[in-house]
Design goal:
This protein has 122 residues and is of the alpha+beta class. The protein has one domain: Arc Repressor Mutant, subunit A (Orthogonal Bundle), CATH 1.10.10. It has five helices and four strands; from the N terminus they run H-E-H-H-E-E-H-E-H. A four-stranded mixed β-sheet has the order 1-2-3-4. A hairpin with a 3-residue loop joins strand 2 and strand 3. The longest helix is centred in the last third of the chain and has 13 residues. The termini are far apart. The relative contact order is 0.20.
């Protein structure tokens, strides 16, 4: 295995804690890593894993969708198909609109969050 980019180690640690059969959004990972506004950076960190041997279950991180859902955000059809296949093998189910119900399959490590998934602003 080659070393992973050091600046994103905190994101990789969080993603490794997502249990099999569960998913989190990029924003959930950023919040659990203590970087609430870094969802895009989580995406960059996971994209940097492409082509490298690693132990980060990248497939368990999805893009947030309205009303408590998440979905695959990879634009490459082959990459999206691989992600979906890996998740389905773990027992994650997609609805007719290719979304995952976060109430059923979501993993939330961040504390103090409201049910809507949005934190309060001071």
């Amino acid at each position: 295995m080659r070393p992973l980019p050091a600046g994103w180690t905190v994101f990789y640690r969080v993603v490794r804690r997502i249990p099999r059969g569960r998913v989190a959004t990029y924003g959930d990972v950023a919040l659990a890593a203590g970087k609430a506004r870094a969802a895009r950076q989580v995406g960059y960190a996971l994209a940097a894993l492409r082509g490298a041997k690693h132990d980060v279950p990248w497939q368990r991180v999805l893009g947030a969708r309205p009303r408590g859902f998440a979905a695959i955000s990879i634009l490459d059809p082959m990459g999206a198909a691989v992600q979906r296949s890996l998740l389905e093998k773990e027992g994650v189910r997609f609805d007719a609109r290719d979304r995952v119900d976060l109430a059923r399959f979501g993993w939330r490590k961040a504390k103090g969050r409201r049910a809507s998934g949005r934190g309060r602003r001071a």
